[in-house]
Amino acid sequence: MNRVQVTPRSYPTNLIDKDWGNRKLFYTKDSENFLRLVHDMKLRDDDVWIVTLPKCGTTWMQELLWLLLNNCDFEGALAKDQELRTPFLEFGYSVFHDPNRSFGPIEDLKSPRLIKSHLSLALLPSKLWEGKNKVIYVSRNPLDSYVSRYYHGVSFGFNYGKSLHQYFDEVLASDDFPTEFIEHAHEFYQLRNEPWVFYTSFEMMKKDLRGVINDVSRFLNKPINDQQMEKLLKHLSFAEMKKNPTTNHLWELAQVQHENAGKEMHPFVRRGDVNGYKDELKPEQIEKANVRIQEVLAKNGVTLDELLLLKDQ
Ligand code: A3P
């Protein structure tokens, strides 16, 4: 991968007291200008952000957030690709290497804007660190996320021709597995009690979607009635989202210029399980990965159950 270590212009030292100088951050080579523009990005007071690592349930939560911010306009949601209703900050730049392709669609959006990013806290706009905008974070078991990333990569071309086991051996061979994953989530976990942060997990959404919907609606100050709740539960169900063309990232797929994009397709809303990795990865891969995960968790002083909200808080 064409990723290099990057140093942001400043760090969120007001939010988390840690040795930021030792926080290794990576991004695509030659992206200093884009990252500087993100760092200095102007925000509107009512912008809402969804921040996650890839394949952690972003689309699922994003659909809920968009609906809550738009008076449960189900017709509107079904009429337009999700990526056009709520843009992914890094997408346009990563495909076209042109920052305007990232910022343009966001600037053109009517308020309240819902913006998606996979950037870690230190690479996000520094304005966010002031705590005036609402941020929703969704974590997930790293192994489920990596398995999901593999299938996404096959559909989008960059993992085409590679087996899941080959892909995961490469993940295991990389130096930063799983440091970036754990630190990305842990930083937001540490902010979970801030009034501007709503921290949840894919696992919580699977366990109690109704509860998460209630909590998010309170967090955004967007009350819903019983009928809207029932409609939300249906619209957000795995079966409905799987067959919904606007939530399967077909628009993004059409933009991607990889020569192998679309040659072998896996649905974006694919399996939707907790711990599905257990029957997809080899036992020895799982064992190796878990040793590394436990090491990094211990260094950060947090457990996986805590990051996934599976332990009483
Ligand atoms: P799997 O590939 O494990 O099935 P993201 O949107 O962050 O890329 O996350 C994609 C993952 O969320 C995929 O995981 C997808 O199936 C799952 N997902 C999306 N909508 C879902 C839903 N309504 N219920 C359960 N899982 C869902």
UniProtKB/TrEMBL annotation:
GO terms for molecular function: sulfotransferase activity. One of its GO terms (biological process) is sulfation. SUPFAM superfamilies: P-loop containing nucleoside triphosphate hydrolases. Residues 45-300 form the Sulfotransferase domain. Its EC number is 2.8.2.-. Transmembrane segments: none annotated. GO terms for cellular component: cytosol. Pfam families: Sulfotransfer_1. InterPro entries: P-loop_NTPase, Sulfotransferase_dom. PANTHER family: SULFOTRANSFERASE SULT. Belongs to the sulfotransferase 1 family. This is Sulfotransferase 3, isoform B. It comes from Drosophila melanogaster (Fruit fly). The lineage of its organism: Eukaryota, Metazoa, Ecdysozoa, Arthropoda, Hexapoda. The gene is St3.
